[in-house]
Design brief:
Shape: elongated
Structural class: alpha/beta
Number of strands: 25
CATH class of the largest domain: Alpha Beta
CATH architecture of the largest domain: 3-Layer(aba) Sandwich
Strand order of the largest sheet: 1-25-24-21-22-2-18-3-17-16-4-7-9-8-15
Distance between the termini: 6 Å
Number of helices: 6
Length: 406
Amino acid sequence: MFKQVHCTHERYGGGGRHLLWQQPFDASLLPREPVQLVYLDIPTGSPNRVLQWPAGLDEWLSNRTTALLSEEARVFNPLESYLAELRRVVPIVYETLQDTGCLYVHCAQRYAAYAKVALDEMLGRGNFVNELIWNYEAAGRSSNRFLRGHDTIYLYKKGKSCVFHPEAAGRRRGRSRTNHMRQGVDESGRVYYALTLGEREYRYYEDDVLTPGDVWNDIPLLPLKDRERTGLDPQRPEALLKRLLESSSDADDVVLAPYDEAGSFAAAAALTGRKSHTYCDSASSFMLSRRRLLLCGARDMDLYPRPGTAAMEIHATRQGRQITLESFSAGEAASANPMLDDGLYGLDLWAAGRMVDTAFHVHRFSLRYWESPTLNFALSAGAAGGQPGMLLCDAWGRTAYYRDGE
């Protein structure tokens, strides 16, 4: 007989590589080991958001968005609130950086100038490295101003120098050359373009990697129908965050994002082999961050949900190590599609494992995604310690945990 229980901790695999907290960033949650890179993207959008996204078998198969999530997001508007949060967080995260570490601060256009002044005051102008312009080419028309289509990302170092891999964001020189340069091939077969000044020859090879400039216009905003899009804002493209991570850290380095509402930074860290510490505030953010980490192949994770579980109605049976989930009801949750309110259609993810005190250790899980929209409703709970248990996450981001009382 499975009974609903309180859970303070989800563990996947050996744990420890990716840590995710469903609560506001706080100094008490800082990593114990030195951090190589911090990405700070303080939310400044609208506090009220309605999220629509595919959920349940019918939705994944038909690419419809009928699961509705309405909640109040934590944002920092107006400017005074933003600067207060910036001044609170920056000194905390900056102290965690190792000597070769760096801090990226992602700013909306309307706050960028104020943030730069505050950052120089807190960190010192001597530690400023770059102002990066992410130009995502805004669409539309305006009769009284130029279109606003870029964000600003400030880079600060901690010590005398920071890790920098220009090849991560660089491009090959290619075939471009000026008319006064001659083409040649050296003894190793490399193509170059050369010019002679005085008695000295200067060669520029086609396969040289050029250090990128500080204006990036090759990474667009995510299209509305992009499968990477979660519906939560702000959401940055994985390509942008991977470029920052690969440029300023190495594989297995510890990286940190105090605000990762869409799970993009955690996903980018998993895809590039970094160890991540990320924080989000809402149930939907926690759900989608968990999903993105699992879909990226991350298996060594520790997740800390906010206390409290959703009221769900389930029926499950266990035979030996195998747990079979036979029915599920989302209770009071409402949807534009009645199919989600009954049966197993409203279930987005479930896992079987072992409950050890108040921690749930996942052994096997099943979740819906584009390539595999159906769930496996029979999973092994494993045999290592504790009591057999389950994790259920529905289409509205609500989570519940169960333990077999036997």
